[in-house]
Amino acid sequence: MKTLGLTDWQALHGNNFRGAKALVTGGAGFIGSHLTEALSVLGASVTVIDDLSGGDEENLKGFERVTFLKASILDQDKLNKAAAGCRYVFHLAAMGSVPRSVEQPRLYNDVNTLGTLNVLEAARTANVQRVMFAASSSAYGYNPVPWIEDMPVLPRSPYAANKVAGEALMRAYSLSYGLDTCCTRYFNIFGPRQNANSAYAAVIAAFAKALINGESPVIFGDGEQSRDFTFVHNAVHANLLAARSEKMIEGEVLNVGCGTQISVTELAQVMARAMGREDLSPVYQPERAGDIKHSFADVKKTTATIEYRPIVDFEQGLKVTMDWYRSVIPVTGAAVVA
Length: 338
Hints:
The protein is α/β, with parallel strands linked by helices and 338 residues long. The chain has a domain at 19-189 and 232-258 and 296-312: NAD(P)-binding Rossmann-like Domain (Rossmann fold, 3-Layer(aba) Sandwich), CATH 3.40.50.720. Helices cover 38% and strands 16% of the residues. It has a 7-stranded parallel β-sheet, sandwiched between helices. The longest helix has 21 residues, at 105-125.
């Protein structure tokens, strides 16, 4: 399932990861598999731990020096074994989806909060050099945009609260045990391998599936809500930069976005136009609990701390993503205009 070609990881990161051993939790999932792919290309040996509740082992097919372990991050013994000898831990395993977290708050807390504690314990036991944690921009809630890392956290869903708890654990472990950590707050990551078949599918995935099948995209809310849509390779790049940082990060929160805004209605129109389906106007449904109105990253701190800058812009990323969805989504509806 290789999708590289858009980004030259070797040119960006050289030999910094050659011969290193890394653990990627959730590495068979959407973002995790792209990170695993980049680490493999860069010469690292990677252990992936994933219970496949949201991932697919097929996402790892063809990657070199990758060992897959089907297990949950709630299994401390297996986590300890997976982390042994690792220089880096990239913690991406989590239950995703804001609306689903509203429906199942206890499950989300168990996996996302307790699971993060387990990962940190495994990393501490293994004397890992640094842990990179996949945090979320949902922590900002209704703060005014653009969002800056020193704003108060205002989680509006159990999912967001879990991610904030994970950030607190990362900082606590850095300051209590000397285990260096970094919290990368992702802003609406999209790209190939993002699941379009779930009732909780992310918006670009859901729109792609609808349009390919000749159906109108469904928007929850008035469509004026805006997002900082960020292609997945930008998230991978930020993780790699954080891992190789020569200075201690000590649990700092770093935004990972592109610093651009697009409304959800505009997104639907852009995607429909690209698919030649401008006849498919969005259908609007009531806003969902836990959703936020606007999301927009200020990345100045991330640039200053780890020299991060976006490497793939929204338009480039959307084209690659839509091409991928066209190649994998089976057509079940009225895919052509009569």
